[in-house]
Please model this.
Amino acid sequence: MADLFQALSDPTRREILRLLRRRDMTAGEIAERFPLARSTLSGHFAILKQAGLIVAERRGTTIVYSLNASALQEAAATVLELLRVGR
Model:
């Protein structure tokens, strides 16, 4: 769970998640949206994957990233439980 909240703490990673909420995207499509070096973005992808927030699938020579909504739902449920919302 700590990995998940660490991943969510960065604005670039949150923007990547917002993009993937709309549709699956290739690494190149995501890179076009940020003025960052590809190595920097690769680091963000690695953190998001480690936290279970995104899934990477190789399709030929391309890597396609997808949002793992269940990880976000788990994080939201944890926060709501901590705040005792709905009890």
